[in-house]
Amino acid sequence: MRYRYRSIKEIPQEYRPREKLRKHGAQSLSDEELLAVIFGAGSQGMDVLTLARNVLKQGWKRLEEVEFSELTKLKGLGLVKAAQIKALIELSKRIREPMGSVQVLSPEDAYRLLRGYFDNRKEVLVALYLDVSHRVRHIETVAIGSVNRVYADPKEILRPAVELSAYGILVAHNHPQGNPEPSKEDLLFTERVSKACEILGFELVDHIIFSPEGYLSFREKGLLD
């Protein structure tokens, strides 16, 4: 529904998004009205419906893929509203694919599932915890590093596995500068995690390095026993 009003205050009370939702349910609202409800208020010089409309012109796919820092540059968006958008998109993904229903049976599965977790400016280490059927129990961002280094003690990776009684662990991190080939530090780190998993009875399913060029699987490359 497009409004001829200059601001939301000019819209009759019964037609305002929150009132419509209260009386008729969320299904009666347009996308821009739903987003306006989430935002709660507009920004300086822009009412909330106009802001929501302008944001949605980007398209949901771009809003999902764009970096958070870029999202904050859209007119009318600051840190809070950009965070609301990213949180909304992530919640919708989790509702569509709840934990426990997603299986990771290949590096490609892990790549599709985890690629949204990585920053293109810093190395990020993520751990994925699996049950015996390789269904996802939990995903955790373990550490955030610099542009070319990230470090975590294996204990930080294994602690959630113990708490969850997980069967296996898949670790992944990114190389923002492009080359997914493992460094000497990557190889040593993977060896330490593998030994720790063996001691505690967990399977290290894989270590995957993400980059703008694609990904590299330690398992596929024969770098894991």
TrEMBL record:
Query: Gene3D superfamilies given for it?
Result: Cytidine Deaminase, domain 2 (3.40.140.10)
Query: Which InterPro entries does the UniProt record give?
Result: MPN, RadC_JAB, UPF0758, UPF0758_CS, UPF0758_N
Locate the MPN domain: which residues?
103-224
Query: From the UniProt record, which GO molecular function terms apply?
Result: metal ion binding; metallopeptidase activity
- Signal peptide extent: none
Entry-linked CDD domains: MPN_DUF2466
Q: Which GO terms describe its biological process?
A: proteolysis
Keyword annotations of the record = Hydrolase, Metal-binding, Metalloprotease, Protease, Zinc
Family classification: Belongs to the UPF0758 family.
Q: What is this protein called?
A: DNA repair protein RadC
Read off the lineage from the record.
Bacteria, Pseudomonadati, Aquificota, Aquificia, Aquificales
